[in-house]
Amino acid sequence: MPSTTHLDQCSALSGLDFYLRPLSIADVKSCVIVESAFPEQERCSEEKFTYRLTQSPTLSLGLFLREPSNDRLIGHVIGNRTSSPVITDGSMLMPEHWRSLPAGKPLTSGGQLIGNDPNGKTIAMHSVVMTPEFQRGGIGRALVKDYVKYVKDNMDGERVALIAHDYLVGFYESAGFENLGVSEVRFAGGGWYDMVLPVGSRV
Fold it and tell me: Which residues of 11-43 are buried (b: 16+ CB within 10 A; e: fewer)?
């Protein structure tokens, strides 16, 4: 189970029994519920969650609370790999008929790679979200920092990249990311900024 160095120090989680672990197909419906915190046009669909958690399950982490009836997902980071140094529209897409494609084989369409590139050296963060009751208090920032630590400790990659709205640029800068300026990504109407954090390559 990934260590929770920053989450352990988060006062907003004090007294709560929580843990961090890689997500699996069994978590898809819980991910859809958590994702509802986003505006509708920015939400990941159940099918795309299934694709991402099938293609790159070790790159997605969930923050869970232990509760008497059932453990509850309260936040997640969803990732995949891309060969681009920043997020692209292609990396955010899901190949059509992906279930019938050979496992682990990247798909190119119109000159750009679609979806997960298993050989990519950029870890692309496509969804960072907390349920509304756990927003604020620094939990999201701690989750991002622990995700970056998890990548550094366990993955072969050169950088972590994401796109952010202008009002979240400062949030990601406080987690160590650099703002590279306006992104070319047109997802949900565009207006994003490219954020990157070098992590080096694991030996």
Answer: eebeeeebebebbeeebbebbeebbebeeeeeb
